[in-house]
Amino acid sequence: LFSESQSRILVTLAPENEREFEKLFSSARFSKLGKVVQKNFIIKGISGQKIVNTSVDALQESYKSSFGGFK
To answer: CB within 10 Å: which end of the chain, N or C, has fewer?
Structure first.
């Protein structure tokens, strides 16, 4: 879980847990934003065009570098 604000949360889960997640949160409003495929993270827009297509390694490096020397 990654909180974007008090009202929005980004959730990552294994594909085999998707249906169970949808059942558990059927009363909540949610959208599937993207999917990690091999080594890429892809986010598609409403009409299916790729908005983000980058490597997981690049995302991890960017995330870690934002905290300077902290690990």
So the answer is: C
Interior angle at CA 56, CA 51 and CA 61, nearest 5: 110
Looking only at the bridges linking them, the beta strands covering 9-10 and 34-37 are unpaired
Phi-psi region of 52 (alpha: psi -120 to 50; beta: other; left: phi over 0): beta
For residue 26, the tally of other CB atoms under 10 A from its CB is: 8
Burial string for 36-47 (b: 16+ CB within 10 Å, else e) reads eeeebbeeeeee
pLDDT tens track, the chain, 71 positions:
555 566 777 888 898 999 999 999 999 888 887 777 777 888 888 898 999 899 888 988 888 887 766 65
